[in-house]
Structures are given as C-alpha cells and as structure tokens.
Amino acid sequence: MNTESNTRVSRRSLLQAGASLALIRALRSRPVRADVPNGYRIVAAPTRASLAGLGNPQTEVWAYNGTVPGPVVHLRQGEPARIVIENRLEQDTTVHWHGIRLPNAMDGVPGLTQPPIKPGESFTYALTPPDAGSFWYHSHANSLEQLGRGLAGAVVVEERVPVAVDRDILWFLADWRLTSEAHIASGFGNQMEAAMSGRVGNAVTLNGMVSEEEPVRAGERIRLRLVNGSLARIMALRFEGHRPVIVAIDGQPCEPHEPEGGRLLLGPAMRIDVVLDMQGEPGRRYRVIDDFYDGLSYWLTQLAYGEKPPLRRHPLDAPLNLPRNPSPDPDLVTAERHELTLQGGMMGGGTMIGMGGMMGGGMMGMGGGAAWAINGMSMIGDGHAGMEPALTFQRGRSVVLSLRNQTAWWHPMHFHGHSFRVLTRNSAPVPHRQWQDTVLMAPRDTVEVAFVADNPGDWMLHCHVMDHQVSGLMTVLRVA
Ligand code: C2O
Ligand code: CU
Ligand code: CU
Question: How confident is the model over 10-38, as a mean pLDDT?
C-alpha cells in the first residue's frame, strides 16, 4: 500500500516564485549557541507560523513560546535545571524530555508519571541531565495532534569540554500535512493511516520553515545536529558532494563512522549528530536529498557556499570522538532476556495480520481503535493510567530485549528513561558502539538491545510513529 498522494512534498506549490529568499535565509538561521540559563519558562499556546515561507499564508499552529519548533533548550551536563511549562492551550498537556535519563516523575507521561497540566496551569520539570548530546522535548498528551500541530523543540546538553568545530548547528526537521492554503490538514487519527505508515505529510521544514538553502563556508567544520521531529516521516538524507561522519546517535556518542551508502537513516524521534567538513567549492550549491520513500525523493535544502575563500586548506585535524556518556554497560552474561513482538497493521488487500483473537473476542483493528499490539496486548491513547507493565525488572539488572517486528511496516521503537545499546540486527552484530533511545525497525526485522534497568519507575516503550503509538504499539516496562 502506498500513500503516494499524501507523501509528495510540494515545495514549489507552497513556495511561490518571488518570495524573498534573502529574508527567508535571515530568519531561518537562528543561532543555536546561547548562554545556558538552567532555567526556562515555556508557554504552550496557539499562534501562527510561516512554515511555507514568507509570501505564503501563515499556518495556525500550537507552539512553545510562540515559535515552531520551540526554543532550543540548552542545558549543561550534570547541572540541575528547572523548566516551567505553562499551558495556555484549550486542552490538557504534558512535556516529555525525549532521550534524557531523568527521574520518573519528570518524564511527562500523563496518568502514568504525572497528572496532566490543565489549561491555565503550570508544571515545573526539574532534571539534571547525566548525558551530553542532542535530545528533544515534545507534548505527550493527545500526542498525535499536539505534536502534529507543532509542540516540539530541541534540547542540547552541552559537553563539559566543548568539541573542536567551527560551528555547532541544529536542524530540527518536521513534516506537516498542509492544505493548499497552508492550513494544517484535519483528519488526525485516521484509522486507515494508523494501520499503515501513519500520517506522513507533504511539507518538510527545517527549523520551522521550508528551506531553499543553508549558508556554509568552504573549509569549515560543522557539527550538525539532526532531529527528526516528524509524526511519521522516515528520512534517508544524502549530502551531495559531502561525506558526513556520524559521531552520535540519539545524543549518545558512537565510534565515528560514515553511514552505509552515504545515507543517514533518521526515523521519527531519532537524532544523529554528524561532523561535516565543508570541502565544496566557494559559490556552489549542493543538495541535501531525502530519498527514503521510493519514487518520492525530494531535496530538503541546499548547502550554499559563500564566495569567501576556504577557511583552511585541509580538513581540521582534530579528533571526531565525542567524550563518552556515563550510561552503565549491561552485563550480557547475567542479563535477563525477553521478547517483545510487534504485531498488527494492514497487509495488502486490507487484512490485518496477527491480530486474530488477541482481544479475547473484542473487535481489534479498523473499528476498535487498536491496529497494533505488542505481545498480543494493545495499549491505546497516550499512556493514561490503567496500564499494567508488560515486564518488571529488578533495579540494577541487565536486560536484553529482543524486539521482533512481525508487521509489514517500519517502526521507530522508543524506550523512556534509559538508553540502550543496540547489539544485533537480524542476528548480525551492530558495529560502532551504538547507544540509542529509539531504534528504527524495518518490516520483519529483529533487533536485540541491552541496558541496565537502573532507573526506577514505570517507563513507556512505544513506536514513535504517533498514529501507531496511539493505536496500540505501546507498552509499559517497570523498574522496581
Ligand atoms: Cu518521544 Cu514517549 O516519546
Ligand atoms: Cu522518550
Ligand atoms: Cu510504528
């Protein structure tokens, strides 16, 4: 099945000819380095944003502090931070600090870790990030719609000693389904989509705007933090004429390596930090292409070299390794092992697989709100109370989870409160010491991950395609 009509990115239909590119460029390159105040006050409220670019109609969005994405939250590794969230929406909300290992009460899952923040109320998130790296924050209440209307932003936890690069920049990528008037299309929670690829949109923004080009200088070394804040769109990014080196995945440093086939595979909620040596020619433009979906490739932006002579003749001769984060190494010998099988979704011909009888005779699938299951159980919604944990671990135990995707669809599987080491994919060892909080699974993939269950509380494990999460691809794991 294909959602072709929905997934084509119509940059040109949205970007009228003659729009002021200079202005767009000036607005788009928001600085990402800032003083780190360790205190934030963030208001969630409706507003308008120029997603499609200036000269196009504005889009009504829900935003943090009036911008889409919300402000970059800069924190320092190992230093306490307080973030006050004020809810000026007309519905409950919460904020989840995706990928940050924090106390359970700060995890932002309504009904599971905190009561929802009611309209007009505030909640203070207090956390001390143990890991440096690229993370993000997003609503975890009515998630499909609140994230789909813009409630998300990046978190950068600074290393204690800064890394040697000329520029540290962040591209927050998000996918929107816009009408021809640049309104956010209605129809969140479409059951047909929920059982397939989810709500893939038609306009991809970079730091809140469809991007024609991003200015760079020849010879400079850039640390580029990529965040996929989409509801459902998987990306495979290629940088024409450049060789990005992956230095961290989901905020966690790995052995520096070039991606397979030069494509950076970025599922929803994933982050990849790359180091890019700008070895192109002054004055030239190089496209950044996303060709994940067959026949639907588009270019995200262009690296636009200024006319200035190269900053240096040869690439910077500094190490690419980031300092390790303190996540504990699981003991694979004593680890307990569990399987979690992902089931459901649509097959060709409109049948659901693997769902028969799972609900004890209840109606699964198209009519019942659940399209997916984990080990035969469908938890739907956002994580509201009443979910019994699928597994309980003794605190401090090493755990190996074998995630089996029995479905015909891709799933970025995310676990709260921990980072896991990705051990194997379809029995082959995964190289480069990859620690992640979200692992992208292809149809039929089996992936083994390992972690130390050292953070007490009830933690969600779910697919980060939002339609999948809210229609059953979700469970709770308890660390007691
Ligand atoms: Cu970023 Cu439970 O999610
Ligand atoms: Cu999370
Ligand atoms: Cu999924």
Answer: 41
Q: Residue ranges per domain, the chain?
A: 4-305, 336-479
What is the distance between the alpha carbons of residues 74 and 67, in angstroms, rounded to a whole number?
Answer: 16
Closest C-alpha residue for ligand 1 atom 1? 98
pLDDT band, residue 315 (cuts 50/70/90): confident
4-305 shares its CATH topology with 336-479: yes
CATH code for the part of the protein at 336-479: 2.60.40.420
- Cα(370)–Cα(367) distance, integer angstroms: 8
* 178 vs 34 pLDDT, higher one: 178
When computed from its CA atoms, the radius of gyration of the chain, rounded to whole angstroms, is 21
Q: How far is the CA of 7 from the centre of ligand 2 (A)?
A: 26
Which tokens go with 474?
């979700």
pTM attached to this predicted model:
0.90
Residue type, 10: S
Question: How many residues belong to the chain?
Answer: 480
Q: Residues near ligand 1 with C-beta < 6 Å?
A: 96, 98, 138, 140, 269, 414, 416, 460, 462, 464
The CATH superfamily assigned to 4-305 is: Cupredoxins -  blue copper proteins (2.60.40.420)
What atom in ligand 1 is closest to the CA of residue 109?
A: 2
CA angle (181, 294, 440) in 5-degree steps: 95
Q: According to the model, what pLDDT value does residue 385 have? A: 57
